[in-house]
Amino acid sequence: MAATWLIVGLGNPGPRYETTRHNIGQMVLDELAERRGERFREHKAGARVIETWLRPGADKLVLAKPNTYMNTSGTPVAALARFYSVDPAHVVVIHDELDIPYDSIRLKTGGGHGGHNGVRDVARALSTPDFPRVRAGIGRPPGRQDPADWVLSPFGSAERDTLPIFVSDVADAVEQLVDEGLLAAQQRHHSRG
Fold first, then answer.
1. At what angle do helices 182-189 and 157-180 cross, to 10 degrees?
2. How many degrees, rounded to 5, is the angle at CA 39 between CA 35 and CA 45?
3. Can 22 be counted among the known catalytic residues?
4. What is the Cβ-side half-sphere exposure of residue 71, based on CA atoms within 13 angstroms?
5. What pLDDT does residue 145 have?
6. Contact yes or no for 86/126 (Cβ under 8 A)
7. Which pLDDT band, with edges at 50, 70 and 90, does 162 fall under?
8. How does DSSP classify residue 11?
9. Which residue, 14, 67, 122, 183, has most beta carbons within 10 Å?
10. d(CA 94, CA 118)
11. For residues 113 and 71, what is the distance between their CA atoms, to the nearest angstrom?
């Protein structure tokens, strides 16, 4: 029997944040939606969602973009997990990661939040840190720039040149995680960056 996976792209709502580093999780959700020719719709849980499949006959995917700000992402994620009866082991959270170089992907399940307030809030709301994460590297800010300003700034021009490929690669990692498991996805995507 096919399983249901809740795939969450963390970010901030509104056009001001659309192209910022903090919103790469939502950019990946847009890529996954585009691959399936689907559009997001409002859900009562406080998120925009798409109900779709990995491919016909395979696991069901619920793609979700919380309508809340990053630091309060947990409430809609937990509400969606309850609504769709998804265990935390099938809640995949895609987020930006300062401690990974730009254009690198790392996957893991559980562990700490590494100072990422969105991940912290999801772990709080799910009452466990044991959910899969697809971490999209954005790198550390140059010089003494405040990391908070860095994550809320748009990608630089050199990054924008490769951003569509990076977003597509992260979407591939999400699909492989669901289809083949964490280890297979780690072996493929950890070796690339």
1. 150
2. 120
3. yes
4. 3
5. 87
6. no
7. very high
8. -
9. 122
10. 10
11. 12
Nearest to 51 by CA among 41, 62, 59, 42: 62
Owner of token pair 């659309």: 18
Task: Go through 78-97 and write b for each residue having 16 or more CB atoms within 10 A of its CB, e for each that does not.
Answer: bbbbeebebebebbbbbbbb
Q: What is the mean pLDDT of residues 69-89?
A: 97
Q: How far apart are the first and last CA of the chain?
A: 35
Structure tokens at 166: 């990076």
> Which of 72, 63, 71 is CA-nearest to residue 43?
63
Average pLDDT on 107-121 reads: 93
CA 107 vs CA 45, 127, 143, 161, 184: distances in Å = 26, 20, 28, 24, 10
pLDDT reported for residue 143? 86
Nearest alpha-carbon partner for 132 in 77, 55, 70: 77
* CATH architecture, range 4-192: 3-Layer(aba) Sandwich (3.40)
